[in-house]
């Protein structure tokens, strides 16, 4: 095996590890977009031996054998090519396990992006699946992936910005070079931004005429700091579904930038869920009482970026075969 090949694999592994540390990625992309683009391009060249867009694939076969379409000229699409469709390993592993073991009857993915999470699993033939995405430029890829999915007739894609208010327009910042950092809660300092006006919905409004009592709800929310508003707009679901399991991103800086008081947000979550937190060693920590203060103590930092696992019932630990500390 050649020395250059070993170096190439080391570089791809370095990029891959950075991709799954989203807080690092977002800070680096905002401050040093040209450096990050160079790393992505290098990873692409090492894997495909070309940077010619027309010679790069525009789809990925996921571990589930489902097809994920991407834009090979956009950096997150290119990152997905490098990682073979899995840039958020923790989320994807949890999602596939939850679909298999929890057997949800209602699935909601808020912040679909290309659909790395949504299309990673195959659902029961009676499961209702909803994906909500605000970035208009991603819709054609999401729709193409849906058409290849075995549950395509059950998957509903909604182009809107999910919030706690319905039928209001929302200013949305599309990061034209890294779709994963598009947001309504902040405007990155680099100039690769396109402003877009997107209609808002509440997730609850999608189910106004539906009885919810029998539903087992699985949801994911990843909206760069706007999580509190999205979840407030799901309160009827939380109150009425039989059970609920959720996976959300938590970033203290972006939540504060959206104008939300963090402890109020945490109190709201604990009204409906037990909160489990992934620590710095990727262990799942059960926290009977969660406050901003004890999160800062757990992470030894005033800035906390992690993921929360939310469960309405403690018995789901066993059902999902989770290792909890």
Automatic annotation (TrEMBL):
Keywords: Methyltransferase, Transferase
Keyword Methyltransferase: yes
Start and end residues of each Methyltransferase FkbM domain: 109-271
GO biological processes: methylation
Recorded GO MF terms: methyltransferase activity
Stored InterPro entries: FkbM_mtfrase (IPR006342), SAM-dependent_MTase (IPR052514), SAM-dependent_MTases_sf (IPR029063)
Taxonomic superkingdom: Bacteria
Pfam families linked: Methyltransf_21
Name under which the protein is recorded: FkbM family methyltransferase
Organism: Bacillus songklensis
